Amino acid sequence: MRHETLAGQPRIPTEVSAMTAASLNVKPAYLKIANVWKAFGDFHALKDISLDIREGEFVCFLGPSGCGKTTLLRAVAGLDLQTRGSIHQGGKDVSALPPSQRDYGIVFQSYALFPNLTIAKNIAFGLENTKRPRAEIDSRVTELLKLVGLADQGNKYPAQLSGGQQQRIALARAIAISPGLLLLDEPLSALDAKVRTHLRHEIKELQRKLGVTTIMVTHDQEEALSMADRIVVMNHGVIEQIGTPTEIYRHPATLFVADFIGEANKFEAKAANGAAVGFGAASFSCTQHGFDDGAPVIAAIRPEDVIPHAINSLANGAATNTIDVTISEMEFLGSFWRTRLHGHALGNETLIADFSINAARRLSLTEGVQLTVELPAERLLIYPRGA
Ligand SMILES: Nc1ncnc2c1ncn2[C@@H]1O[C@H](COP(=O)(O)OP(=O)(O)OP(=O)(O)O)[C@@H](O)[C@H]1O
Ligand SMILES: [Mg+2]
C-alpha cells in the first residue's frame, strides 16, 4: 500500500522494509541541513549547522540542556524558521515553508493528545484533514492501534491511559499519514525508567519496520547510544561530532564528547615525539596524535578501558603502558567494581578504573591491594589543552 503526501511526493510504504546499516550507507541524503543559523536577539542558538540525513536513517540530536537541539528540530519542522541557511527534504527546498506544507509527523515530550477526543479520534485527526473515505480512515486507525500494541483501546480517552500508552498513541498519530520524516523531541523523558527502556525498543523496532527517516532529540546518552544509527553531538549551538554510537563512544572527536558520553579520566599531560604522551611521572605510548613534542595536552582514558594485572605478574618487556597502583577505594556497582587508584607514577592524580566482578575475584582485589594496571595505547585519547 502506498499513499500520496500532501506535497504529492510518494510516501513511505507501510509494509515492512527492514533497514540495515549496510543499506543505509548507499542511500542518498533525504534531509539536507546546510549552514543553518538561528538567532534570538543577540544570542546565537545555532551556529552554522550542516548535516545530511539519509533516507530511513534514525538520527539522535544529543547534547546538554540549552545546546540547541529543540531549536534545530523546530527549524526542520518549520515551527520556528532559521535565521540563515537552508533545509531540503526529499530534494525539495522547504526552508521557508510553513509546517502545514512540510511532510513530517512530530511527537513532543508532553503527549499533547486532545483530551476531549477518543484515542481513535486522536489518531485519525491528521487523516481526516486529508479527506479520505471513512472506511479507509477507520481501517488505518485499527492498523495503527495494533502497530503500537493498543488494539481495543480506541474508544478510551487519553486520561484513561498511562503515560507510556499515551506516548504510543502520540506516536501512532504522528505516523498515521505516513510522513516522510518523523520528529521526536524527548518523547520518553516524561516516563519512568522501566517504561522508557521498553518504549525505546518499541520505537526503534517500529522505525525499522516503517523505514521512516527519524530525528529524535534527547539529552540521555544511553537512549541515543541504544537507538540511533548516527548521533549528532551538540554543544553551545555547534555540532561537536557526528558518528555511529560506537564511533562516538570509542573515538570521541573532542574532550567534550569524551566527557559527555560515557566517563573519562583526564590528565594534564605533555605530548612527546611520535606516538607518546607523558603524565605524572610516567610516559605512555598512544596512537599518533600530531602534537608537537612538549605540547600541553589532555590525556583521557575511560574507566572500563583500564586493564588490571596482578602486581609483578608481567614478564620484563611485556609491561608496556603499565603502572603500579594501590586501590584506595572500591565501590560495588552491581555489574562491576568502580575503583579509585593511586600510585607514584600518577603523582597526586587519581585514576578511576572499572573492573569486572570476575577480574576482581581472580586478582583478589580489595581496598589497599597493589596491582599493575595497563593503559592500552589505542585507548588513550589525546586532546588539546584549554579547548
Ligand atoms: N524563543 C526563544 N527566545 C530566546 N531564546 C531561546 C528561545 N528558544 C530557545 N532559546 C535559547 O536557545 C538555546 C537553545 O535552546 P533549545 O531549546 O534548542 O535547547 P535544547 O538543547 O533543546 O535544551 P533542552 O535539553 O533543555 O530541551 C537556549 O539557550 C535557549 O535559552
Ligand atoms: Mg529541548
From TrEMBL:
Record bears the keyword Transport: yes
Tree of life domain: Bacteria
Pfam family, one: TOBE_2
Alphabetical list of InterPro entries matching this protein: AAA+_ATPase, ABC_SmlMolc_Importer, ABC_transporter-like_ATP-bd, ABC_transporter-like_CS, AminoethylPonate_ABC_PhnT2, Mo/tungstate-bd_C_term_dom, P-loop_NTPase, Transp-assoc_OB_typ2
Keywords for the protein's UniProt record, in alphabetical order: ATP-binding, Cell inner membrane, Cell membrane, Membrane, Nucleotide-binding, Translocase, Transport
Molecular function GO labels: ATP binding
Domain ABC transporter: 31-261
UniProt record similarity statement: Belongs to the ABC transporter superfamily.
Protein name stated in the entry: Iron(III) transport system ATP-binding protein
